[in-house]
Design a protein that fits this description.
Blueprint lengths: L4 H8 L4 H4 L38 E6 L10 H10 L1 E6 L9 H18 L4 E3 L13 H15 L4 E3 L2 H4 L17 H10 L3 E3 L18 H6 L13 H14 L5 E3 L9 H10 L3 E4 L4 H4 L3 H10 L4 E2 L10 H9 L24 H15 L11
Parallel strand pairs: 1-2, 2-3, 4-5, 5-6, 6-7, 7-8
Helix pairs in contact: 5-7
Length: 380
């Protein structure tokens, strides 16, 4: 099969992207232009390959979501975890997905009982906050009380969804800012209880940028048009991130785990400056391994510097995708594929992390930061 150089360049430079907005039949055209979505060159590069289906050490996934944990048979889940060498999974959706307080409590209690019955060493829950009646005078008192009870009953931390900042509204219809003072008692209480707050705020900056040929997340926005944002929908990326940082600043005694590396995995210099300003901020790597895998040298330097403050997370539960994480973290492989083109049309390189750093990222940091996890299955 031959392909004209001009069409190859066109595909590489996304010159044909604008035409994709109009639905076109996908036809392979050996001698003509090839569109970006269709272009899947088979690499001719011959280099050493180390495909890894199991992590080198048992690891803790601090960013997982299981929405059937209250009544599912969890033995199948444990078997899947075994195959990856996942020692422990943290289900951040401890209160399920219902906005109804009664339902969410039912889910929480059911999930705890199910974990207890199946394998309390292998599964842990974070709780969540219901912001629905944030206007009520005694909302904070009630929310703090529920939080305390949840922790007493077995929650190991608090997860804050990105809905805070994006679409949580008070009764007047105003957006509730991430740094809304009404929420301060929550962050303070987490500090007192010694539990971490895993917080996800905003989305990748590219979602706010024009959806054009220059946007790295063009394909993601095409496949998921509802992810497109504007500075008025509801506010700018910078505004949301600033609000989150205000919370870190105001609550130095509370430990935070910033989800998705705070959406600065593609700017480790910036993230480095934040790590210095907020000693109470840790980060987890869920859904951003493709950013690390395209800058293995800078990533390794960052991981060595902040080896005590980086945790392993994945977010979406697709067991086969963990292999990419293991390979980026553990190997020094070059130019290997990522599993989702809309996250990365580029290829991955391994960071070859030293064993001591790897152990910290895989489990030591989580065991230190999240209270009450069973340590017996993890090596020293
Ligand atoms: Zn998540």
């Amino acid at each position: 099969m031959t392909m004209r150089l001009s069409s190859l360049l066109a595909a590489c430079a996304f010159l044909s992207l604008t035409t994709l907005a109009v639905a076109q039949p996908k036809v392979s055209t050996p001698a003509g232009p090839i569109d970006f979505e269709e272009y899947e060159p088979v690499s001719t590069l011959k280099v050493a390959e180390h495909k890894i289906g199991r992590a080198k050490y048992p690891f803790i996934d601090v960013h997982n979501h299981q929405y059937q944990m209250d009544d599912a048979d969890l033995r199948g889940l444990i078997t899947q975890m075994d195959s990856l060498n996942m020692g422990l999974m943290v289900n951040l959706s401890g209160r399920g997905f219902s906005g109804n307080p009664g339902e969410s409590t039912k889910f929480f209690n059911g999930a705890l009982a199910n974990i207890q019955k199946t394998s309390p060493k292998r599964l842990a829950l974070f709780t969540n906050i219901n912001f629905a009646s944030v206007n009520d005078k005694d909302w904070a008192t009630q929310a703090v009380k529920t939080l305390e009870e949840d922790v007493k009953n077995g929650a190991k931390g608090l997860k804050i969804y990105k809905s805070l900042g994006f679409n949580v509204k008070d009764e007047k219809g105003n957006r509730v800012r991430v740094d809304d003072p009404r929420l301060d008692p929550i962050w303070t209480k987490c500090g007192e209880l010694g539990i971490p707050v895993l917080i996800h705020t905003a989305d990748p900056k590219s979602f706010w940028d024009p959806m054009d040929r220059y946007n790295e997340r063009w394909l993601e926005l095409k496949l998921h048009p509802n992810r497109k944002r504007a500075d008025t929908n509801p506010v700018s990326f910078e505004q949301l991130i600033a609000e989150q940082h205000n919370v870190f600043r105001r609550h130095p005694k509370t430990t935070f785990i910033n989800a998705h590396m705070g959406w600065y995995p593609n700017d480790l210099t910036k993230l480095d400056s934040l790590m210095r300003v907020f000693p109470n901020m840790n980060v987890e790597i869920g859904a951003v391994i493709a950013e690390l895998g395209r800058q293995p040298k800078a990533s390794r330097t960052f991981f060595e510097k902040y080896q005590d403050r980086i945790l392993f997370g994945k977010d979406s539960w697709v067991p086969s995708e963990y292999a990419t994480y293991f390979r980026v973290l553990e190997t020094d492989d070059e130019y290997f594929p990522y599993h989702k083109k809309y996250h990365a049309f580029w290829r991955m390189y391994g960071m070859a992390l030293p064993d001591e750093v790897l152990k910290k990222v895989y489990y030591k940091n989580a065991l230190r930061i999240i209270p009450g996890l069973d340590k017996s299955q993890f090596p020293n």
